[in-house]
Design brief:
The complex is a heterotrimer. Chain A is mainly alpha-helical. Chain A has 13 helices and no strands. Helix content of chain C is 34%, strand content 22%. Classes of the chains: A mainly alpha, B mainly alpha, C alpha/beta. Chains in contact: A-B, A-C, B-C. Strand 1 of chain B pairs parallel with strand 11 of chain C, so a sheet runs across the interface.
């Protein structure tokens, strides 16, 4: 078990190194390189040239870059968005907003998804199930940014209930919540439907399993058997959907933050890509990589803890 | 009914003698074997066609493909044809315009009432109705319903079904041209992924041993890379454009297919018929194409069908974050994101691409679901 | 045996399933049988013959799309076919228990086996300690070593045979008087099978259980049953005591079942039953077995045969028993086989 985690952890480090390497080459080889950019002031360019050790061979430059990242967490300086500012500083400012947005979406999506999936499975084949299943397909199929547009149009133009864009100078909690509502809904519909679909499938399978029959014949009521056996068993594989869910929400929040002008790192990434602020872009991408890899790692570990078949392992199979 | 042989009810005792002769040929038996001989894929196809949702999805997909091919040819506008004078014209559609929907009008807000009479700004007949008049900081202003076609001087009888964008380009033409491009990106990347995945998985699955270990580990490392990060990095490296998008969608896109193909090999490798064929000296090539791959086709089809909508999604996603295809080429994503930026002023510019992408995604997903159900009939047997 | 009290009586039971693809499937088409106190009744047939469905109907655990169309299931003055969920709840587990085919899928994979036994005991008002004590003694009864330690383990930590023992312990936890065994040994190795069968026999004697034993394996039937009901396509085609069915089978389907049973001498020349069972979503004309019956008569395709009484206990539904039918006997090899079985049985007595 412990060995398994070590292996997973090592694999994660290898992946991060790969991304870092790739990022370096992107910075150096990209068309429209920062170093020929007339928009950047000569001082910053000079600073950059020193920093990047441009006179050295590429491999040495790569070494400097890696050691800078590893020892000082130095990803370089912003050249466009906030010229001259350390990119990590820019990022840290914006992390909380994105974290709140993503966490709120997950917190909304998981229980509602479980609820919808459970209802659909228990009412299998009935109108309720058909309605939920139809909504599931819609929410899974239609991209979050289309929902974002729809929500923005409906609730800020037609019925102006919520602010169109994020209130950057929101002072009261109410204002912050109000400006978060639409982005959170737009982000959570897809994950909600994903969980609901998965749980519905799992639960239907569990409900028709032999252990449910045994639970019924040994004298549990249907309700007791569903809660104690079918539901518990279908929740275990849900962990599988949580990983793509979180990475999905993180990806989705790029566009959603942009649409609602949420001052988070998603919108920042889009801005920096569009502006060609490559150090910032790379640092943000690293940030995304670390977060999503850590999430996967944590979920893998907890999955092992939840399921006795993995936790105890082997047995007499 | 229980009867005693010695005291049969009269009716049974009277049954005619000729009913009690042995029947030698039994036609029903042959029927049974005929049904069984039907191929699995014919069966799957029949099941698919019995599913009304799947049939509807197929029709919708085919309709959209047909529109994507036809509309840019026959709309009468070029998809890059600009006309700055006719920018942001609202949609006007024959028949519907009579109902007050898509009639080419817009409510203009806060104009000076005197300006409405100025025929050099508001040509004769362009102002249909003054909706309300009010005073803003001491000045008189009014809202008016304006026929934008007359206002902009669109020639009589000319229609922009979906309106025009900020450069006066016909949105309908651009949308269906964009659909063409989006679908092309999706199909090419999906097929490329399919080919790479099947070949990679076949090599790993067929040879096994060290080859398999090396290939599987390589795939695992690649698969560990977060999808969004890799895609963005490659788009940055390659620059925007159709080719870059296809390439960045194939970097990690084939891994799932490869894994699935490899698993099929391991599933079928031990089966008797494969062992038998091998011991009879059937060459590897034949074994793969005649005996193993056909069995993998079902799950591969389902997988590929699910990959199409996610490729369409990825293209739009990239367009939104500024890494789409090069302007002035349209794609669904490009139109959506440029519409989004003027959503509150000209909602119709978002409306049509949004409807199209939603319908397309729903149809593809429904079709994929239907295919999965048709190809994996195990649910059917679960009656009792 | 026949004089003893009738415990459970199924009368003309019809069960059907509605399915989107195949319409209405008539899985059980008029089944009647009686279970007497203390006896083991075997219900024999191929898969899909409706034997499991009949028993699920008795337990009131048909899947959502299944429904008892008509008929009665009489037990303890109650018609279970019409019983409410509350009434059934009082019967399941404490009056009638059930053991399933695949012990791995019958146990909840993520619940400790101790909890799987005590869970229902606690629901019935037993204290936690008392329930655990009872679980341990039940596990000991079914032959699990060190039950004190093993109640803390999960199903995957047990072998197939052990799992089936646990399932039996669970089924017996409510001290039922009837035990329904649905192919309890099919998923197990041959050696394990024999031990589980012995265990079931032993428990039956100890606890005075009445059993319904569902199987497709005539070998198992020979060991376990007092009486046998042979089912085909949702109907009982022959019924009788074990001796009657094994030594004087009258229905061609029973002949086929006996012919397909492996024994020492006939190894390698088993007679498989040709063809497949009929499609139960279609209306069946005449005798359902006719298309697969090598001795089929013209009337088999026209009219369903009644049950012809052969003795007080023995009945068979085949037109071959009609006085006007040609004299058709079972094949020589089957006759030979039955002779050998008789000899073996005589030796044992």
């Amino acid at each position: 078990m412990f060995k398994y985690f070590l292996k997973r952890f090592a694999a994660m480090l290898v992946t991060l190194f790969l991304i870092l390497t790739l990022s370096f080459w992107v910075i150096r080889l990209m068309p429209l390189s920062i170093f020929e950019n007339p928009d950047i002031s000569p001082e910053i360019q000079q600073k950059l040239e020193e920093k990047m050790h441009l006179h050295e061979p590429m491999v040495v430059q790569f070494g400097y870059f890696i050691s800078g990242v590893l020892t000082r967490g130095d990803f370089g300086t912003s050249v466009k968005i906030r010229p001259g500012m350390d990119v990590l500083e820019i990022i840290w400012e914006r992390v909380p907003t994105t974290m709140i947005l993503n966490a709120a979406s997950l917190i909304l999506a998981i229980p509602l998804g479980i609820l919808a999936g459970t209802i659909a499975a228990l009412k299998r084949g009935k109108m309720t199930d058909n309605l939920i299943s139809f909504l599931i397909v819609i929410f899974i199929s239609v991209p979050s940014f289309v929902f974002a547009s729809l929500l923005q149009y409906l609730f800020t133009l037609q019925w102006p209930v919520f602010p169109t864009l994020y209130l950057t100078h929101a002072s009261t909690t109410g204002q912050i919540v109000a400006s978060m509502v639409l982005p959170v809904i737009a982000l959570s519909l897809g994950p909600l439907a994903t969980i609901a679909r998965y749980l519905r499938g799992e639960l239907i399978e569990s409900l028709s399993s032999e252990y449910m029959l045994l639970a019924r014949t040994k004298g549990l009521t249907r309700g007791e058997a569903v809660v104690a056996h079918a539901f518990r068993n279908s929740l275990v594989p849900i962990a599988n959907t949580i990983i793509p869910l979180i990475t999905g929400i993180m990806g989705g929040s790029l566009v959603i933050e942009k649409i609602f002008a949420v001052p988070g790192i998603g919108g920042l990434l889009v801005d920096s890509i569009m502006a060609g602020d490559h150090f910032l872009t790379v640092a943000l991408l690293m940030m995304y990589s670390v977060t999503s890899l850590l999430t996967i790692f944590i979920i893998d570990v907890s999955y092992g803890i939840i399921d006795p078949r993995i936790r105890i392992g082997g047995g007499q199979e | 009914m229980i009867v005693d042989r010695d005291h049969l009810p009269q009716e049974l005792a009277d049954l005619p003698e000729e009913l009690f002769v042995r029947v030698k040929d039994r036609p029903e038996m042959d029927q049974v074997s005929k049904v069984r001989a039907d191929s699995f894929y014919m069966d799957a196809f029949r099941r698919l066609m019995k599913n009304r949702v799947s049939v509807l999805s197929i029709c919708v997909v085919l309709l959209i493909i047909a529109l994507a091919l036809l509309v840019p040819q026959i709309s009468g506008y070029g998809y890059t044809e600009q006309n700055v004078k006719l920018k942001n014209i609202p949609p006007r559609i024959p028949v519907l315009e009579k109902l007050g929907i898509a009639d080419g009008t817009r409510t203009v807000i806060g104009v000076k009432p005197s300006a409405l009479n100025n025929t050099s700004r508001y040509p004769e007949g362009s102002v249909l109705k003054v909706l309300r008049t009010y005073t803003v900081s001491g000045k008189e202003a009014c809202d008016a319903l304006v026929d934008m076609y007359v206002f902009a001087g669109v020639p009589e009888g000319k229609y922009y079904f979906f309106g025009t964008d900020y450069l006066g380009r016909d949105i309908m033409t651009r949308l269906f041209k964009g659909t063409q491009i989006s679908l092309l990106i999706a199909f090419i990347s999906v097929i490329t992924n399919l080919i790479i995945g099947v070949v990679y998985g076949s090599v790993a699955g067929f040879y096994g041993g060290t080859v398999d270990i090396v290939l599987s580990h390589l795939a695992e490392v690649l698969d560990g890379l977060p999808y969004i990060v890799v895609t963005i990095l490659f788009m940055l490296l390659l620059g925007s454009g159709m080719f870059s998008i296809i390439l960045s969608l194939t970097i990690t896109g084939w891994i799932g297919t490869a894994r699935l193909t490899r698993a099929q090999y391991y599933r079928f490798k031990g089966r008797e018929y494969v062992l038998a064929a091998r011991s009879l000296g059937v060459p590897d090539r034949n074994l793969i194409f005649r005996h193993i791959l056909p069995n993998a086709i079902g799950p591969l089809i389902t997988r590929t069908m699910i990959a199409v909508p996610s490729a369409i999604f990825s293209e739009s996603f990239l367009a939104y974050i500024g890494l789409g295809i090069k302007p002035p080429e349209p794609s669904i994503g490009v139109l959506l994101s440029s519409g989004q930026s003027v959503l509150l002023q000209y909602p119709y510019q978002t409306l049509f691409p949004a409807i199209l992408i939603s319908v397309l995604m729903v149809a593809f997903n429904m079709l994929a679901n239907g295919l999965r159900d048709a190809l994996d009939p195990s649910e059917r047997g679960r009656l009792q | 045996m026949m004089d003893s009290e009738v415990l459970l009586s199924v009368e003309d039971l019809v069960v059907s399933f509605s399915s989107r693809d195949e319409g209405l499937v008539h899985a059980v088409r008029g089944v009647s049988f009686k279970l007497h106190r203390g006896e083991t009744l075997a219900v024999v047939g191929e898969s899909g013959s409706g034997k499991s469905v009949t028993m699920k109907a008795v337990m009131g655990i048909l899947s959502a799309n299944g429904r008892v169309e008509s008929g009665k299931i009489l037990y303890d003055g109650l018609d279970l076919a019409k019983a409410t969920e509350e009434q059934m709840h009082k019967i399941r587990g404490c009056r009638i228990g059930m053991v399933f085919q695949d012990p791995l899928s019958a146990l909840d994979p993520i619940m400790k086996i101790g909890n799987q036994i005590t869970e229902v005991l606690k629901k019935r008002g037993m204290s936690s300690a008392e329930a655990t004590r009872k679980a341990i003694s039940l596990l000991r009864d079914v032959g699990i070593d060190e039950p004190e330690r093993r109640i803390e383990q999960y199903p995957f930590q047990f072998s197939g045979g052990m799992r089936q023992r646990i399932v039996i312990a669970i089924a017996l936890a409510g001290d039922p008087e009837i035990l329904i065994c649905d192919e309890p040994t099919t998923a197990l190795d041959v050696t394990v099978q024999a031990r589980i069968l012995e265990l079931i026999k032993e428990l039956q004697q100890k606890r005075g259980l009445s059993e319904v034993f569902i199987t497709h394996d005539m070998g198992v039937v020979a060991q376990m049953a007092d009486r046998i009901e042979v089912m085909y396509a949702g109907k009982i085609v022959e019924k009788g005591t074990t001796e009657e069915i094994f030594f004087h089978p009258a229905h061609p389907y029973t002949w086929a079942l006996l012919g397909s049973m492996p024994d020492m001498e006939t190894r390698g020349r088993l007679e498989a039953i040709p063809g497949a069972p009929p499609d139960m979503s279609q209306e069946i004309h005449g005798d359902a077995f006719a298309p697969r019956n090598p001795y089929a008569l013209a009337i088999d395709f026209e009219r369903e045969p009644p049950l012809f009484r052969l003795s007080e206990t023995h009945m068979a539904a085949t037109w071959l028993l009609h006085p006007k039918a040609p004299r058709i006997e079972m094949s020589e090899s089957l006759r030979e086989r039955i002779r050998r079985m008789k000899e073996a049985a005589d030796e044992q007595h």
